[in-house]
Structure formats: C-alpha cells, structure tokens
Amino acid sequence: MTVILASGSPRRRQLLEMLELPFRVVPPNVDETRATSELPERYVVRLAREKARVVAARERGETVLAADTTVVLRGAVFEKPHTPAEAAAMLAQLAGRTHQVMTAVAVARDGRLEHALDVTEVTFRPLSADQIAGYVATGEPMDKAGAYAIQGKGAALVEGIRGDFFGVMGLPLRLALDLLERFGLPYRFTR
C-alpha cells in the first residue's frame, strides 16, 4: 500500500526512499504562520496535523504522512531563513550553544488522525564569523529550519546530538513507522 507524503521536503522524500517505502508526494499547501503566543511544541504539532488532515481530506481512503520541524533556542523559534543575512544571524545565535529540534509527525486516513512529537538536542561548535559566512555562501541553509542541514555540510557545525538524528533531518523514522503501523501499515524489510 502506498503512503502519501504530505510534504515537499526533499529530505523527507530521501528518508522514505532509503527505507524503500512506496509513496507519492502531495504537497499540503497550508498556512505555516505561527501565532505570536503559540508554544513551539504546539506549533509543530498543529502544522503536522493540519498538513495530514488537509491532504487526507482530498485523498479519501489513502494513508497520509506529514511532518513539521522547527528549531528552538531558549523559547525562540528559528524557522527557515528568508535571506542569507537572516541565516547568518540564526547561526551566530546557535553557535556554541545547545538548541532543540522539534519534529512532529502526523498520520491521517478517513477522519482518523494521530501524531507524535520528537525533541532532539543539538549542540553547535563555537563558530567564527568566517565559518558562518562560508556555510551561508553554500546556499544550503536557505530552506532549512534553523538555517542548517545536519545531513549535509551543516554537519561541520555540530559538536553533538542527543536524540534522533532523523528527527533533526525532518522525519523521526521510529515515530513515523510506529504511527503507520497503527494504521495497519507495518514496516517490512523485504517487499
């Protein structure tokens, strides 16, 4: 049975391909604006659930997998940067500190909707302005929450991680697979 991935994220696609899960992509097209008083945990859970719900309403009978990721430092949410200067400012704030990466996963089908939340701590190395500028110049930070990709060149920024590497990439596989199994789609290593 094919899963519908309610996400345009190439990283989420890559992770499902790695597991050889049959899927097709249907972008959710939801408003991702965060309410000013909305807690980061509620924000990512709301978005993941909304993405799954919207796509499941269009794709009756199909199992829809959605996720949302944000980076949090001392209560401040770091979404995707809009400019290279914004990316550099985010990275300067994260340098030498430990932040949280929150990824919510949701699965929906025919009015049923379940979710789970992963919170992983990532510690950045101290970074010089030249290192930050060099990384920003690669272009990699521009479509990533927190302005970095742990699975790419951004790995050079990281001193340590406590939690789920795949959650930092944007899809905590253990949670996604658990939710899919609850919907009758257990993961099998062979097809």
Protein described:
The chain is built from six helices and seven strands. The protein has a single domain, classed as Maf protein, CATH 3.90.950. α3 (84-94) packs across α4. It starts with a strand and ends in a 9-residue tail after the last helix. The chain is globular, with a radius of gyration of 17 Å. It has 191 residues and is of the alpha/beta class. Strands 1, 2, 3, 4, 5, 6 and 7 form a seven-stranded mixed sheet that branches. The chain has helices at 10-18, 40-58, 84-94, 129-137, 165-169, 173-182; strands at 3-5, 23-25, 63-73, 76-78, 98-109, 112-124, 158-162.
What is the topology?
Blueprint lengths: L2 E3 L4 H9 L4 E3 L14 H19 L4 E11 L2 E3 L5 H11 L3 E12 L2 E13 L4 H9 L20 E5 L2 H5 L3 H10 L9
Parallel strand pairs: 1-2, 1-3
Antiparallel strand pairs: 3-4, 3-5, 5-6, 6-7
Helix pairs in contact: 3-4
Tertiary shape: globular
Query: Would you report the number of β strands?
Result: 7
Helicity level, as a percent range?
25-40%
Distance between the termini: 11 Å
CATH-level-2 architecture? Alpha-Beta Complex
Instruction: Kindly provide the radius of gyration, computed on alpha-carbon positions and rounded to a whole number of angstroms.
Output: 17 Å
Query: Which runs of at least 5 residues are low in confidence (pLDDT < 50)?
Result: none
CATH class: Alpha Beta
How does the helix and strand content classify structurally? alpha/beta
The number of helical elements comes to 6
Largest sheet: 7 strands, mixed
Domains counted in the coordinates: how many?
A: 1
Order of helices and strands: EHEHEEHEEHEHH
Beta fraction of the residues? 25-35%
CATH fold call: Maf protein
